[in-house]
């Protein structure tokens, strides 16, 4: 980072959850399945893009390669003067194994074993069908953010990801806190100084949606994220 950067000691990482999808709206579990934004989600992405365009200038956007995130990132990029979007599969949602594609209210009935693993308090428990444990998700999320932070010291960068991924970052910053709902296109800001020094400056902010009428669905933004 050059000496004239606004904050030479740390990277400011703005983490954004993707906009709403049809599956968010109806309560279907996505995980790694590739579902596009719905119209509501596109409007949310426009709103968060306009908000970020008014804040201090970001240099690059990193996005999960799943289209609900990458589409959100492209909309933000265009609102922020055409920023480059780098897709990174490490920024994907938690892999939810057999539960992917399942209706939230049917999970228990259709995949009782996977449902039990999903609800388990044992953070090492993997979800059958190739799913990740909470510990695996945590390691993937935090190392992805650190990698980006160490590469962009002195800059402001935007990361577009998913509810479960973002919840893991909260746990990293505030091990004993309660994250609450992580709504579509909510904004959280981390300052990363290095491996073991970071601060959470803003959490889950959706003030950009307040006057738009697009705040309705937060499904997947609670601990049942997907």
UniProtKB/TrEMBL annotation:
Binding of substrate, residues: 17-24, 68
GO CC annotations on file: cytosol
InterPro entries: His_Pase_superF_clade-1 (IPR013078), His_PPase_superfam (IPR029033), PG/BPGM_mutase_AS (IPR001345), PGM_Phosphatase (IPR050275)
Name of this protein: Phosphoglycerate mutase gpmB
Catalytic residues as annotated in Swiss-Prot or TrEMBL: 18 (tele-phosphohistidine intermediate), 93 (proton donor/acceptor)
UniProt record similarity statement: Belongs to the phosphoglycerate mutase family.
Pfam families per record: His_Phos_1
GO molecular function, one term: phosphatase activity
Organism: Cajanus cajan (Pigeon pea)
CDD domains attached to this UniProt entry: HP_PGM_like
């Amino acid at each position: 980072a050059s000496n004239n950067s606004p904050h030479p000691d740390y990277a400011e990482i703005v983490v954004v959850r993707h906009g709403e999808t049809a599956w968010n709206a109806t309560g279907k579990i996505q995980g790694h399945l590739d579902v596009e934004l719905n119209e509501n989600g596109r409007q949310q992405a426009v709103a968060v893009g306009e908000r970020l365009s008014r804040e201090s200038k970001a240099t690059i956007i990193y996005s999960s390669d799943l289209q609900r995130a990458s589409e959100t990132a492209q909309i933000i990029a265009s609102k922020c003067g055409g920023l480059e979007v780098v897709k990174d599969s490490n920024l994907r949602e938690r892999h939810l194994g057999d539960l992917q594609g399942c209706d939230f209210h049917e999970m228990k009935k259709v995949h009782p074993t996977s449902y039990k693993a999903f609800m388990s308090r044992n953070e090492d428990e993997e979800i059958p069908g190739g799913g990740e444990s909470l510990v695996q998700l945590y390691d993937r999320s935090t190392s992805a953010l650190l990698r980006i932070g160490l590469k962009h010291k002195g800059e402001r960068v935007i990361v577009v990801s998913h509810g479960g991924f973002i919840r893991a970052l909260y746990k990293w910053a505030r091990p004993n806190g309660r994250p609450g709902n992580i709504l579509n296109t909510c904004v959280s800001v981390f300052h990363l100084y290095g491996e073991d020094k970071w601060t959470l400056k803003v959490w889950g902010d959706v003030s950009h949606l307040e006057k738009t009428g697009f705040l309705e669905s937060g499904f997947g933004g609670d601990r049942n994220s997907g």
